[in-house]
Amino acid sequence: MNKKFQHIALALIGLLVVNYIANSVYERFDLTQDKRYTLSEVSENLIYKIDAPLTIHVYLEGEFPAEFKRLQIETRQFLEELQAKNTNIRFRFINPDNIREQLVKKGMMPSQLTVEEDGKLSEAIIFPWAEITYGKKVELISLLPNSIAKTQEAQLQNAVEKLEYSFANALHNVTLKERQKIAVLAGNGELQDIYQYSLLSEIGKKYRLAKFTLDSVANNPQKTLKDLRAYDLAIIAKPTERFTEEEKLTVDQFIANGGKSLWMLDNNYADTDSLYNEGKMLAFPRDLNLTDLLFGYQVRVNNKLIQDLYSAKIPLATGNVGNQTQFQHLNWFYHPLVNGNPNHPITKNVAPVRFRFTTQIDTLKGSLKKTPLLVTSVLTKKTGTPNFIELQSIAKEPKENEFASGPQLLAVLVEGNIPSAYKNRIKPFDTPDFKAESTNNKMIVIADGDVGRNQVLKGKPHDLSLDKWTGEQFGNKEFLINAIDYLLDDSGLIQLRNKTIQINLLDKQRAFAEKSYWQFINIGIPLVLLALFGFGFTYWRKKKYQ
What we know:
The chain is α+β, with helices and mostly antiparallel strands.
């Protein structure tokens, strides 16, 4: 009897020890092949910064297409990983049906999906959004970002791949104590504010923006350079007036001292208004006096206009019906539609970017790393300038043998120890802090000043990612936002956009065609086996006990 009590006591003690160890030593194991539930070091560092309650509301609850249930499941499992790392993180899934108007007012627009069930198509509305609240800061997260995906399955794949980046980016924003500063350069005929509003209003949510004019260089270049160096990045958006040597040295030394730069340059003058009003325009070179500066950075922006058979559309009046002018949307080869580098986080899964009267870029030999970001199709044609461009040429059937110039580089990322263009030259003004080379710097050069230019509709700026006439969607805004994030990212956060996950989805057509077969396999066979077992067991009992 004593031994029995001893065994029971030992068993209870063993259970208590095992329970204590289980609670003390907690570990989660990711057994997936692509390690989709393993958080990156960047994400973990962000999670550890959270020292107060952080609430995440996810509006993926209710009835929606079966494949997007997968997005709900993946999101829930990802948030469970965050919560396991830091108990300050709390999340809740909410059905948006009764609060749709509130969500739209906050900026969370719904997505309309096509549902295929039993071979029939129907429409469904979902709100693929999450909302993070941390103290007084609120951040919205799109769980179904725009992409180049042609099918909902591919869109879902892209959404799941971006889960970690989307949440990590939001966590970075709400835990950031001091925002980085961006200078939007002015003074050389750059784009007016209204034409940059769509882009700048978006990046202004994450960074501090200020217009910085270079006019003061003429009076006090040393002070201008000192003031510019207080910024982390400079945006040069479509300058149209020639840079002085003093202005060039100011920008050069900003870069040499570690400042990042985003160049959007038009090396040709092309007046689209003249094209529509008069049916033709003269395109001719624009002298910005930047050739030698960019040459020092091992980049050259050329003057020849690029035509591409893969292009965006423009509206063209084709006649009248009553008092209504009829428009037709036709491909305009001077507006190339360009896919991004699929292997770089700036351009991965970004929709095609529209260029307007762009030229092309050559990269020069040197120690700097040059990464192509946007490259045209192979069906291109170069047009020298000055040259007349006629609107009626849009009606001509293109000859493929004329579009044989091959792929053209339109945007390039330059990284490394960028040398000063004034390293071995006479300087236009003396600066005691002159640096001959920057350390581990980055810049992006784009051969089109209009790549970040939004349209204006009834005096108000239009969304950069959408054409107001044709309704076409482009990746310009996302590309430029990613470019700025990459240039200013020192933590490696933007690299999470390169995460690849393989999701095995159901083949709907095959499932519908083989519906009866799989119903029999999953329902019929288990019932048949159960019936056989019942009859066999009854027969065995009768035979044994008869």
